[in-house]
Amino acid sequence: IYSTFLQRAYDQIILDVCLQELPVVFAVDRSGIVGQDGPTHHGAFDLAYFRHIPNIILMAPKDGNELRQMLYSAYLYGRPAAIRYPRGEARGTEPDKNFAEIPLGKWERLKEGNDFAIIACGNTVYLSLSAAAELEEDGIQCTVINGRFIKPMDRDMLIETANSIKRILTIEENALIGGFGSGVMEMLSDEKVD
Description:
Layout: H1 3-6, H2 10-18, E1 25-28, H3 46-51, E2 57-59, H4 64-77, E3 81-84, E4 108-111, E5 116-120, H5 124-137, E6 142-146, E7 149-151, H6 155-164, E8 168-171, H7 180-190
């Protein structure tokens, strides 16, 4: 279902699925900026409206293969889950031949660097890798993390990264208030990380 259309079912998501802890998987299409579909179809609020709902898992794949594995994993988790993905063709590599469960709440470190860290989710991950490659030409070394779980977040990787790299940039296609970056800041504040 389109992200903007799912907004109309907000009560049902909370009351009929999440509070009941039913194993429903929401495949949320048209998340983020959707180009020619226009501003009424930009899925710029789904991270914010899902993130505070109890009992739901919220994911954003970096590419088509990860989307495939997330759908499989969401089924195995047996809990309410939402997977948000953008409009258009999937990017990335050929799909894996076999399905594999993604460990719940675990991010993926894609590149190491000591100057600052970029934590991106969804289709902004490859853009972040490209930006890190350009910065490397100027001598700036970036860690790039695929923040594929928006809820639950990978607390251990976030705290470890924040304690070793003092500058963190989050990248997402969502409204700032209540989004992925807000979640990162909340967790760092809760953990009293400077």
